[in-house]
Amino acid sequence: MDSYLTLHGLVVALGLLAYVVTAHLREQRRHPTAAIAWVLFILLLPYAALPMFLAFGSRKQARPQAAHDHPLAPPAPGGSWALQVIHALGQPAPAAYDALQIHADGREALAALQRGLDGARESIDLCTFILGRGRVGRMVIDQLAAKARAGVRVRLLLDGMGSLMAGRPKLDALREAGASVVLFVPPLHSPLKGRTNLRDHRKMLIVDGALDSRWLWSGGRNLAAEYFDGEPGKPPWHDLSFDLGGPFVLQALALFERDWAFANTERAPQSMPHEPDDGGAAQREPAHGAQLVASGPDQEDDTVYALLLSAAYQARRRIALVTPYFVPDAALLMALCLAARRGVAVELLLPARSNHPLSDIARGRALRQLARAGGRIWLAPQMLHAKLAVIDEQLALAGSANFDSRSLFLNYEMMVAFHEVQDVLRFGAWFDRERRSAQTYVAKKPGLLRDLGEGMLLWVGFQL
Question: What is the pLDDT of residue 234?
Answer without folding.
Answer: 87
